[in-house]
Design brief:
about 110 residues
Length: about 110
């Protein structure tokens, strides 16, 4: 499944819709971002209907990167009901991403 690219207003709207949202801040010249992308797409398929996945090109959408204090790519931010619940920055393993996607208390 392709993960939708959003700009700042799209990101704020998606987060504001409540539920669980994973935001992938990435850059086109970022090797770890390219390595992570197929794993994120697989996770998006596995969690379809439960977790919304969106991507933000941090190089192009600098206002979004600044708004969410992104200083490195990749940065993955998990929002639950509009609030930041978890953040992973820099090269991450797919297992680390899967772990933060687990429901609370379960």
């Amino acid at each position: 499944m392709a993960i939708a690219e959003v700009d700042l207003s799209g990101l704020e709207k998606t987060i504001g819709n409540r539920g669980t949202v994973l935001v992938d801040f990435w850059g086109p010249m970022c090797g770890p971002c390219r390595v992570l992308k197929p794993h994120l797409e697989r996770l998006a398929d596995e969690h379809a209907g439960r977790i919304c996945f969106v991507a933000v090109n941090a190089d192009k959408e600098t206002a979004a990167a600044e708004r969410f204090r992104v200083t490195a790519v990749p940065t993955l931010i998990l929002f639950r009901d509009g609030a930041e619940a978890s953040r992973l920055a820099g090269p991450v393993l797919p297992s680390q991403v899967a772990a933060v996607l687990q429901p609370r208390g379960g």
